[in-house]
């Protein structure tokens, strides 16, 4: 009797699909849930994700790779090319302190150079940043 083998929960034919699988497994997604999690993460149908895997795989749109990389803290370069480490670096408190120190230094120098009040200068920068960066709220 000729019996077809059971389909593996995840069969990655393309290198990018293989890296997607590797990432999902590294993030403790069960193999049988990889495609479902990817579909949910990318906001696409399961059938679309299924087409990323296996024979005749279709290309994965770059915006989907960006979403996966951001959601699962992976480096986009690794996801696309396989080069470098998988994990994106986590910003440290030192990075935040460095940015804050740079901002304080800039506000001080700018306000002194232009004869402006430091508080007003800083407030203006926060308002400008809140217009330029979606999601950033200026506190009153």
**Straight-line distance between termini:** 76 Å
Query: Average pLDDT value?
Result: 77
User: Radius of gyration from the CA trace?
Assistant: 23 Å
CATH architecture of the largest domain: Orthogonal Bundle
In this structure, how is the largest beta sheet organized? Answer: none
Secondary-structure map:
Blueprint: H1 15-26, H2 34-42, H3 46-50, H4 62-71, H5 76-81, H6 93-113, H7 118-132
Account of the 3D structure:
By secondary structure, the chain is mostly helical. It has two domains: 15-81, 434 Repressor (Amino-terminal Domain), CATH 1.10.260; 93-132, no CATH class. 56% of the residues lie in helices and 0% in strands. The longest helix is centred in the last third of the chain and has 21 residues, at 93-113. The termini are far apart. Residues 1-12 and 136-140 have low confidence and may be disordered.
Would you summarize the structure shown here?
With 140 residues, this protein is an all-alpha fold. The protein contains seven helices and no strands.
What are the main properties of this structure?
0% strand; mainly alpha; elongated; 434 Repressor (Amino-terminal Domain); disordered C terminus; 7 helices; 140 residues
């Amino acid at each position: 009797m000729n019996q077809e083998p059971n389909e593996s929960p995840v069969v990655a034919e393309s290198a990018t699909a293989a890296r997607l699988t590797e990432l999902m497994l590294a993030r403790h997604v069960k193999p049988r849930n990889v495609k479902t999690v990817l579909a949910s993460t990318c906001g696409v149908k399961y059938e679309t994700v299924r087409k990323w895997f296996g024979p005749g795989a279709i290309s994965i749109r770059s915006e989907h790779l960006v979403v996966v990389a951001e959601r699962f803290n992976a480096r986009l370069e690794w996801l696309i090319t396989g080069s470098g480490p998988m994990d994106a670096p986590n910003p440290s408190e030192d990075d935040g302190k460095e940015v804050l120190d740079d901002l304080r230094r800039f506000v001080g120098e700018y306000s002194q150079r232009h004869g402006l009040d430091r508080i007003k200068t800083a407030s203006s920068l926060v308002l400008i940043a809140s217009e330029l960066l979606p999601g950033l709220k200026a506190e009153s």
